[in-house]
Specification:
By secondary structure, the protein is an alpha+beta fold. It has helices at about 10-30, 105-140, 145-180, 230-240; strands spanning about 45-50, 55-70, 70-75, 80-85, 95, 100-105, 180-185, 190, 200, 215, 220-230, 255, 265-275, 285-290, 300-320, 325, 330-335, 340-345, 345-350, 355-360, 365-370, 385, 400.
Length: about 400
Amino acid sequence: MQAVHPPSAPVSSLSFPLGFALLFFALAACNSNHPPAPAALPSPPTVTVATSEPREVTDDLTVTARIDAIHSVELRPRVSGHITEVRFAAGQLVHQGDVLFVIDRRWYKADYDRAIAELARATASLGNAQRVSRRADELLRNHTISQEEADGRRSEVDEALAALESAKAARDVAELDYVQSEVRAPITGRISRALLTEGNYASGVAGTNTVLATIVSVDPVYAYATLDEAAYLQLTRFQTDGKLPLDQQGKLPIQMELTDEVGFPRTGWIESFDNRVNADTASLMVRAVFPNPDGRLTPGLFARVRIPISPRHPALLISESAVGTDQGQKYVLVVDKEEITQYRKVHLGAVVDDKRIVTDGLSLEDEVVIDGIARVRPGMKVAPQAAQRSAANGSGPKNL
């Protein structure tokens, strides 16, 4: 019987995988003798640094103020009658003495003419009485008339003289009424709309006079603000000691900005303080005067005023971009001599020209990160670059 042998596998099907595996392990063994090269370290981040800027500043208090006109008038007539003319436009700038309303003048003109005629008659009566009195004196000397009759004729002179004075007074009253039938501007300022138009009746009776319009002065204006008790005492103490920065006229200058303005561009001065402190709010009213050449300071507007409350003193300022906040605490990053950043807690004061006053935590030599604070953290090595300080900043005295 013939033995049956199973078919043998081809040599090529086993030799290729085995050779590939041997080659892989040989290469791996060779590479294990050479460790991999270390990865290159990243370069330190670049930051901009600057030292704090020394300046002379004044501690300021910024408060809200209300603008009001220095002069404000309710225009009321002094005579009654129907309005025949309105000689202005709403919001117009009027000048003292301008005719604004005309009340029907015909009756007042007639009364004035009658008063003048009465005055002429009284003058004539006085002249006649004086002539009769002189004749009576001559007749009395000739014993033609009695003493009693002569005295009666002299008394007629006194009566005529009194009648003349009464006629003069009536003439003056009639003239005033006639003049007052033209309602004129008592001050120079900006007028409101006419509250009563042509054809309407205006009352000139005292106590019930009709309001025709209102006028407010334009330039300058008042600004009313309130100071708390501590600020008021500090301000008056330095004022008494002569340490506040007064102008050439001896006035204390203050600055103002409207809601659409920045940088407190308007300058005025403190005019007066109220005569008592409000017991409910422990504050005191202060009144300042501000020029208003452009007319934008409209009575009733609210604004912010900056009041100096201390003499000038040296301070350090840093850029706002250098300040960070850590759970309510303000801090800056300072770069030391080894170019390592350090966390530095600071106390800040007011803003001056987009910079902040540092009251504690920095020295003049410290280099502070002003650009790039978000890219670094305390303890990191950095590549500092010095900032280009603007020549406009200078080191002259500034207000807070």
